[in-house]
Amino acid sequence: MEHKNINLTLKVWKQKNGQSQGRFETYLVNDISTEMSFLEMFDVLNERLIKEGKEPIAFDHDCREGICGMCSMYINGRPHGPWEGTTTCQLHMRAFKDGETIVVEPWRANAFPVLKDLMVDRSSFDRIIQAGGFISVNTGNAVDANAMPVEKDKADASFAAAACIGCGACVAACKNSSAMLFLSAKVTHLALLPQGSPERKTRALNMIAQMDKEGFGACTNTGACEAVCPKEISITNIARLNQEYLYAGLTADK
Amino acid sequence: MLNSKTPAGPLDQKWTDYKGHVKLVNPANKRKLEVVIIGTGLAGASAAASLGELGYKVKAFCFQDSPRRAHSIAAQGGINAAKNYQNDGDSVFRLFYDTIKGGDYRARESNVHRLAEVSSNIIDQCVAQGVPFAREYGGLLSNRSFGGTQVQRTFYAAGQTGQQLLIGAYQALERQVALGNVEMYNRHEMLDVVVIDGKARGIIARDLVSGKLERHFGHAVLLCSGGYGNVFYLSTNAMGSNVTAAWKAHKKGAYFGNPCFTQIHPTCIPVSGDHQSKLTLMSESLRNDGRIWVPKKQGDNRKPGEIPEEERDYYLERRYPAFGNLVPRDVASRAAKERCDAGYGVGSSKQAVYLDYADAIKRYGHIEAGKQGMHEADEATVIRLGKEVVKEKYGNLFDMYEKITGENPYEVPMRIYPAVHYTMGGIWVDYELMTTVPGLYALGEANFSDHGANRLGASALMQGLADGYFIIPYTLGSYLSDDIRTASIPTTDPAFEAAEKAVQERIQTLMNIKGTQTVESFHKRLGRIMWDKCGMARNAEGLKQAIAEIQQLKKEFWSDVRIPGAIDEMNPELDKANRVADFIELGELMCIDALDRKESCGGHFREESQTEEGEAKRDDVNFAYVSAWEYKGEHQWQLHKEELEFEVAKPTQRSYK
Ligand SMILES: Cc1cc2nc3c(=O)[nH]c(=O)nc-3n(C[C@H](O)[C@H](O)[C@H](O)COP(=O)(O)OP(=O)(O)OC[C@H]3O[C@@H](n4cnc5c(N)ncnc54)[C@H](O)[C@@H]3O)c2cc1C
Ligand code: SF4
Ligand code: FES
Hints:
heterodimer; A: alpha+beta; Ubiquitin-like (UB roll); Fumarate Reductase Iron-sulfur Protein, Chain B, domain 2; 5-stranded mixed beta sheet; 8 helices; 14% strand; B: alpha/beta; Flavocytochrome C3, Chain A, domain 1; Methane Monooxygenase Hydroxylase, Chain G, domain 1; 18 helices; 21 strands; 38% helix; 15% strand; globular; binds flavin-adenine dinucleotide; binds iron/sulfur cluster; binds FE2/S2 (inorganic) cluster
């Protein structure tokens, strides 16, 4: 693969902490190899800033393999940047042209308050899972794994939904800051498996109630979430969630 | 004297007997007992969930923003279990034997046998939790093979097995959080163990958002903090993976077991330049179907497609006909290094070999065409069908390769090179997973226990979950049953005061250095020393040099590091500095350990100890022991040996020919 070095202008959101006001700061970065990942470009910039006695830019990241869901940058108006089905950490500088200006912001949503610069607090997602995103089985209670066959189609569809990495890009992309894609992925993952069906009634109701409580918005089906999801979680999951919700509402015996 | 507390009796009865006789804690007492758990990877999350279910009061900590993001999430290929669903001759004994042999006879038999025994339960538990493992058309679970074995015992979820297993454990953990049995502390870093009257009684942790230090009491403390591969700077580990928790425990009295045992994984995407921040694994499962080769001619600059079949050297198939591309990792890595060092490497850096899918695509294409009744299918159709099959099996890995390199692996062979991946060494533990500090346990990759000198693929996930779901719930009771009368110790106790003060002072010292060099630059230099002198091949002279260089680096770090920002705020550079300072000390111990072990075994290759064919030569007469190092002060350690006895799996020279 051909590669070259490029020069860029970065406009990055800087914010000291959750209480303070933020603003954009402009940085010129030169000699960026197109072989670098987007975060490696930030590493290079941060090293320079520290040497110059300035504050580096704080951002979340860990696996840098597109699987932990930690990285979260809103790049040129799109969560995770221009490449489809890609997390920020997997985005590479080949995606940009020499001389380009790149604007980088944190996720913006009431339920994801900014902690510092590009880092936000996504613990609201954990609390949604606490509300019902599990199968209630204690350790040691399981029967033989092959005792309950699962149709391959269903298992595959369940797996596709379970691929969600909990990054929150769907929320960041949504004008209502709705968490419906995230939530529907979890409900689908569990509802499609026979193991998950005993709790179907309560799961959807409780998780949605928690979502509302956390301050996420309602879903108006704009599809922005699906378009930016790095794991290409399908919006059809939201339709399934609505069915589950309806089913639960109709049959709930509380 | 090191006491492994291995129960008496025949190997295959030990665990059953142990469980039958271990002391229990009654439910009312469990509610009064507090357990601190560091880490929420497979080991920590499964332990926290299981202990919470049992009724203990659990506090769990992780440095990421959610327990679901622990490094276990990145595991790709699969998890082993002796289910014998394929009826291909697998058994508990065979899994035990493969693991002992794969580890080059440097693991404790009793622990490994127990691991094989509980392996089946893990799969049952995960399926019950809703882990969507791959299935066959009949609805039953699918298996694949992995290196170092001749049976298909690996369960998987495409290339995202770790993710699916961790999400299962994470959901179980969050359920316990909702029930009030587990308190979760995200974005917290454990910075010391508190020891009172010789027992581990809590920790000092830093809230990474506010920068404040906190004290947490526990009747017992479980370290599930993962491996230390990042001592090499470049590795396949997540950026935040670190040795800090384990190192603090080590300095408080926990012996460190076999620190030099490092796994270098043969199939990773090669380094592309100085900016490289981490390396990406291409799962071992790819060696199931891919073929590894280099040109037969040195310095051959032709494109791979232009090199005809007869001019390719499938060196693993040539050297190891019985296992071919599926030899264990240490063997495959050294073979790649050997070819590249001899001038046969490919790509612009020449530090790479090819992993080629062309044959697999054709083979699968023919099978698929047959299944679909297209017996006359032309070449293009076969290839199209073959690519579809390969995509289903390995799609996410191929995509990842393309994103990183910009090359399409369905069309051109991947370039791969070995990279640091896993650390078999870790905190020494006895049969009950207790360290040499009473009440302090180590689980998962953080301990040294089950993989000897080389870990087989798909066995780390198995071990992490075995430790957390099925072992600690029993062994912890054995200790805590004597502790039911110990009331919670208030964190105003002088031991907590002193520990917090020491942590505070260290942070203050670091911040006050105000030097000129970045934390990152020190980490890179440490990594370079380790990779060059304590990496894939080691020798006495190089190791001695490395020790001197690391000691020098440590001096420089503590006099010239520059950490921006302040203490009482979110400060990722300070977090990194805390970790790198510990990595530097660990690096020295790893070299000391590698120097002591004059034999070659598993991933530890001493150039002085090899056969004429360049294979590792073990020395069972002098080195059939676990090295357990006791910290004695700066640059000083004392070696304790746990002699290994093999009653069942008698050591032989490992051969995969
Ligand atoms: C890319 C990759 C692929 C792999 N694929 C496979 C595979 O297919 N099969 C297999 O069996 N194995 C595989 N492995 C190995 C396996 O993933 C790991 O060994 C295993 O997941 C480790 O689990 P763990 O629970 O011990 O630790 P980890 O998952 O590393 O978790 C460590 C936890 O400790 C916390 N922590 C660490 N330090 C501190 C501190 N000071 N304070 C507070 N918290 C702390 C972290 O936040 C985290 O929660 C792979 C490894 C890599 C790198
Ligand atoms: S649904 Fe997609 S965008 Fe939303 S959290 Fe999951 S992976 Fe991220
Ligand atoms: S850093 Fe893990 S997904 Fe990007």
